[in-house]
Amino acid sequence: MAATGNFILDKGYDASGALAKYKAVKLTGAQLVSPVAAKTDVIIGVAQFGVAASEIARGKGAAVRVAGASVMVAGGTCTVGGLAGLMPDGSVHDAVTGDRVIGIFREGTATVGGYASVMLGLPGNII
Hints:
Elements: E1 6-15, E2 24-29, E3 32-35, E4 45-47, H1 53-56, E5 62-73, E6 83-86, E7 92-94, E8 100-107, E9 115-126
Parallel strand pairs: 1-3
Antiparallel strand pairs: 1-5, 2-3, 2-4, 4-5, 5-9, 6-7, 6-8, 8-9
């Protein structure tokens, strides 16, 4: 079954750099987001589509899921009902000590680069 999302609130932001679809983003200024750079970053949400650097110059912004359930890229195994841990590239996996937990898995995958569904609980705590 393909991973699904269910929005409660998507918010538009400007992107300060290229963003990957279904990966976590952090707030870097007023109404400005950038890709996550560390698994301990405080995130604002999940990019709902990609934004290329060339598109930023033309005014393309980013839709960011800040509440609800979002599809996310799996950076490792994602177990249904497990805690979703943030990875340094903005993807998620089953949380381990030292991770920022950003929600729970509604739908999982064992495929790296596959898709999982996460019920967001932002900004999340480090375990």
